[in-house]
Specification:
The chain has seven helices and five strands, in the order ααααβαβαβαββ. By secondary structure, it is an alpha+beta fold. A five-stranded mixed β-sheet has the order 1-4-5-3-2, sandwiched between helices. α6 links the parallel β2 and β3. α6 crosses α7.
Length: 231
Amino acid sequence: MNGKMPEFINLLQKYFQKGILDLKKTKGYRPFKDIKNLYRGKLSNRRPPSPSISPEEDLKLFYEAMADVKEIKEFRSLSYVKSTPRITRPLSQKDRAIEQLKELIEGKRPLEISKTQEYVHWKVPARTMATVEALHRGEYSVQDFIDLHGYTVKEAKGLLEDFLKSSIKRGFRCVKVIHGRGLSSPRGPVLKEAVLGWLEREMRRYVLAYATASPRDGGLGATYVLLRSKI
């Protein structure tokens, strides 16, 4: 097998060389003759660039295109109403107050309790109004509360004082007192006025400040009380 392999390779080389010579002798053998025609065909299919049109020619073409357009006579009878700008006059002070009251009733405007006549607050001289405002906004966490509804003024006084003492001993800083607004009482907010008087006088040694509670905590029917750290 090994002796026949060189002989086979020599025969293959001779055959290959003979084939190349035969191809060179053939005058009609031109494998790339159609490439030029193919390229020319692609060039011939390109769209020629459109000539630029002058503004005068463009206007002329427009008039020619609109030559057959006719007027619709029915449109002549249509009336044209010129719209007048709407002038909004500023509301007077009375009208503005009525508008704000209407928004409050409809729930479109939040009620600012601090601007009502029932809003109350008080503080010791050492405290600032910033403390009172923060207390009213609910920035002090309420740690306990007492509800004095249904008690007489005498009963409520004893209950409130015991509650304040107990709260200070437990280390509480802010509590809530529910006293109501006295809307159903013929004498008005008797209990509320009594509670506020006690906080400012008899029970002042327990209190640093008080303010009407925020709407989420009872609003005008309750009061936040900021307590002293010790009795």
